[in-house]
Amino acid sequence: MQNVLLLLAVLGFGSLVRAVYPKEQSRVDGAALTLLGGLGVLGMLVFCVGQYWFTRISIVLVLSVGILLSLPPFLEFVRHWRLWLADLRAPILPLAIILVVLLVTAIGGKVIVESTTLWASLKVPQGWPFDVQPEPH
To answer: Coil, helix or strand for 133?
Structure first.
């Protein structure tokens, strides 16, 4: 759920910089540039706000502004999604490779999180095994 909210915030901030993109690009290029621009604007805003006030409330406020800004582009996409998908012409093999890598990353991330929580539940000493001192002979 947090990733969806973050994606909406990125889309909202990216819609602010859409005016500087060239008009003769495809819809896919525009969507990619919007997401990249939005990620940059969101990162810059969180950094600048965090210099003065870095709390959960400040992060939620910055993300809320981005989510509110994402409503018009999201509603436009919902209205015209068939045109957007008709314009999408992606080669199958690279798309399949990217999807497999994303799937493996998602599964691997879940396994890493589960193993880390298991490690934390074992009550292992904090510096182990690096704080073990050799015994003198």
So the answer is: coil
Residue 136 within any structural domain of the chain: no
Tell me 20's DSSP state. Answer: G
On whether both 6 and 68 belong to a single domain, the answer is yes
This model's pTM is above 0.70: no
> Could you list the residue range(s) of the whole structural domain that residue 38 is in?
2-89
Q: Are 14 and 38 in contact (CB under 8 A)?
A: yes
How far apart are alpha carbons 66 and 93 in whole angstroms? 34
In order along its 137 residues, the chain shows pLDDT tens digits of 677 788 888 888 888 888 888 878 777 778 788 888 888 998 899 898 888 888 888 888 998 999 998 888 888 878 877 776 666 666 778 878 888 887 887 777 665 555 555 555 655 555 555 555 566 66
DSSP class of residue 87 equals H
SS percent in the chain: helix, strand, coil, step 5: 75, 0, 25
Strands (E), the chain: none
Same domain assignment for residues 24 and 84:
yes
Token pair of 26 as six digits: 């495809």
